[in-house]
Amino acid sequence: MVARYEAWMCNMLQVLYYHLAMASRAGHTIPTLLADDEPLAREELTFLLKQFPDIEVLGAASNGLETLEMVEELEPELVFLDVQMPGLDGLATIRRVREKHPANCPYFVLVTAFDSYAIEAFEVEAMDYLLKPVDKERLEHTIERVRRYLSERQAPAQSEPPTPKPALQRNKVLVKSGSRNFIVDAQDIIYATIEDGLITVVASNLEGQSNYRTIEELQSNLDPEIFWRAHRSYLVNINRIREVVPWFKSSYQLRMDDKRQTEIPVSRVQTKRLRALLKL
Question: If we measure between CA atoms, which residue out of 82, 85, 88 comes closest to residue 126?
Answer without folding.
Answer: 82
